[in-house]
Amino acid sequence: MTSELFPVHYSTLAIAALVEQVLTQYDLPVVTQCQFWKRGMSDVYWVETVQGSFILRVSHAHWRNHSETLFELELLDFLHQRGMPVAHPLRTTTGELAIELLAPEGKRYAALFTYAPGQIPLGDLNETQSHQLGETVARLHIAAADFACAAQRSALDLDYLLDESLLAIAPFLQNQPELHLGLTETVIQLKATLETLPQEAPYWGVCWGDPHSGNSHFTKTDQVTLFDFDQCGYGWRSFDIAKFFQVSLCTGMSYRVRDCFLVGYQSVQPLQELELKHLQSLMQVAHIWRWAVSLNHAKYHDYSCLDYYYFNHRWQQLKMIQSIDFPWFRFLTRNKRELESPHLSSGGSSLS
User: Fold this and answer.
1) DSSP secondary structure letters along 199-224
2) pLDDT digits (tens, 9 = 90+) for 149-166
């Protein structure tokens, strides 16, 4: 028997220790409860005090380093200062946005956030909410244009989104050579297609990276608050629209509700024709990147899901998005007046 501490790649931190050693570093009302709420790309804790709720998030050692964590937190603090509706990080009594924790697997970073009022839309967005979310993302892009940060964050460029994603996925496709070849050819084609999309303003800037209904709360009066900027970085603004589309495909959102997001965005900040032209390609990029992110997460937390169905299902979805007949992009050929003046309802969406 060895007396040395056994190596781990992920640990669940003790709630009592988080309350005593982390939450006491904030100027908080009396904490009445702290619960381990969700394990995602980070560990999320629900914190209840005598004066309201907060969210404590602890990063995973294998996902974000100190610089990447600070970039996100400073961005959210910046957006909050400019009146954007985001769940923003609070500073400790010494002015820090993040607290370093030395876990058995390495350094992790804790941050305390305001709680986003409202809730995730029941049954997904309706047309009014989708339009409003699109408007808000456009305003976010405009506000973030003045953001400057010394901390470094991986750019949401094709090297990161495609090349690194392919490297993450490829080892799992050794017994599926046709899928491996098809995915490799798709990456090569996408890089050739998107090389004409400039990495400069107004096309390029700070992006949320993960805009969808699951990362936004709406109140009963449809006031929206955004949260979870864990995938933010410098990238194409149109990638945020493509990522919204890609997630919407997985949730079965109707094309009318989805189109309202784009219309809402364009009502604040119109996209260039070149950006609209590349939305379908960027949606494929978002699909491949999301595939790699979920795979890397599953390796640590749920390896049993990485079966044949997992890979084949995502490959079939990617082929569907590649199709020139893919109906989700009918807005590119629909009457312009219909696109600019969609019917906005306050009720739920209907399936197309």
Assistant:
1) SSTTTEEEE-S--SGGGEEE-TT--E
2) 999 998 999 999 999 999
